[in-house]
Amino acid sequence: MVYVNIILLWTAFGFLHSFLISRWMMKIMQARLGRYYAFYRLGYNIFSLLTFIPPYLYTKSVSTPLAYSFSGWRWLQFGLLVLALGLMLGAFLTYDLKEFLGIKQAQTFKRPGTVAAPRHTRIVKQGLLAWVRHPVYLGTIIFLWSMDSTWAEVVAKGVMTLYILVGIRLEEQKLVAEFGEEYRRYQQEVPMLLPWRRNKV
C-alpha cells in the first residue's frame, strides 16, 4: 500500500504541475486574471514548490529496504552529481533565469494596460542547447538516480522520470505550436536528451 500511495502522490503532483502550465489553462487564466496574469508564472513556481513538499516528505518518511547504494563507488556517484549539476547550471546560464522563475513577467505589473511578456520569444540554440534540447531535464534525471535510494525512493524516482519524459512531449507540443517549422528543424538537428550527435543549428 505504501508504494501505491507514493505512485498516487507523485502522479497527482505531476498531473497538477502539467495542467496548470498547459496552453489551455494559461489562456483561461490570462483571460480571467487580466493584467494580474503577470504574476501567474511566479505564482505557479511557488505553488509547484509547495506541492512538491508533501509527496517528498511522505516518501522520505516511510521505511523500506535499501534498493541500491553507491558504497564503494562514491567516485562514480560524485562524477554523476557533478555532471547533473553542470548540465543544470549550464542550461540556466543560457536561459533567461528571471523569465524562467516568473520574476521578469511580474515586473511588467506596473500600470494598467501592461501585458506580461510571453515566456518564449525565440528558440535558444546556444551553449548546451546546441547539443541537447533539454539539458535541465537530463541533469534532473541523472541527479535523481545518482543518490542512494530505498525502494520507496526508487518508486518515486520512477514516477518522476516518467513524468519528465511525458512533460517533455507536452512542452514540445507547445513549442511546435508556437514556433512551427523552425522548432521542428531544431528537433531534427539536436537530440532531445542524449547528445549522441550535434549538427549545426
UniProtKB/TrEMBL annotation:
Bilayer-crossing regions: 6-26, 38-58, 78-95
Q: Which Pfam families match?
A: DUF1295
State the compartments where it is located: Membrane
Q: Which UniProt keywords apply?
A: Membrane, Methyltransferase, Transferase, Transmembrane, Transmembrane helix
Gene Ontology molecular function, alphabetical? methyltransferase activity
What membrane topology does the annotation report for this chain? Multi-pass membrane protein
The answer, when asked if Metal-binding is one of the entry's keywords, is: no
Identify the domain of life: Bacteria
Its family remark reads: Belongs to the nurim family.
User: By what name is this protein known?
Assistant: Protein-S-isoprenylcysteine O-methyltransferase Ste14
